[in-house]
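Researcher: Here's the sequence for the chain we discussed earlier.
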Amino acid sequence: MLEIKNVYKTFNAGTVNEKLALDGLDLTLEDGDFCTVIGGNGAGKSTMLNAVAGVWPVDMGKILIDGQDITRLPEHKRAAYIGRVFQDPMMGTAATMGIDENLALAARRGQRRTLRTGTTRKEREEYRELLASLGLGLEDRMTSKVGLLSGGQRQAVTLLMAALKQPKLLLLDEHTAALDPKTAVKVLELSDQIVQKYRLTTLMITHNMRDAIKYGNRLIMMHEGRIIYDVRGEEKMALHVSDLMARFEQGGGEVNDRMLLS
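Model: Thanks. This is the structure I predict for it:
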């Protein structure tokens, strides 16, 4: 479903601030893979997600989704393939619009805009059912402005929006990092439910090693723009945090406070 082939990305090339962010990166995800991504600061995790999302062009290599070469496709045209939830709960939604209106925007992604009514009765019934599945009581607040929601509620709505069109690829970019621990657990559980329900191929960046082990069927570790560890299935589920820390240090990385505190 996703192929990243020999991708390179350098920032500030030719200056004293030159940084090789992706160094011949190769990664293939099968349809339905839920892959967690860990690594230290500057390992290339977010650069990889942004390269896939089209935030910036890569210097070399190819990116394919479901066999389609999207390497040179602009970011807005990749919306037909990709759903994304950002680290900042304020991103990914329109704060001054209602919950139902945000869901309607997501449902119309990639379609031509018309002057017809914003949402139909049938759509509102569907949205109510979707929101009820979150267990947050948002189905009774459908007309509330999203900007009035808490961070956790907003991320839950963003998850629904990202998955509504059942994209070929779902990108979760440290989407619980700005939440308190209790809310983060709830959002992660919701993420797992949504991924399993729609069988979405998913890449999830996290600094929390326990979460990286607990969720998904595959785990990759990055360091200096390359994948240094790739494990899946039962072998992944048998991992312990100490195993990951040892593997990370063997690969030349330094375990930072954020990893330890997580």
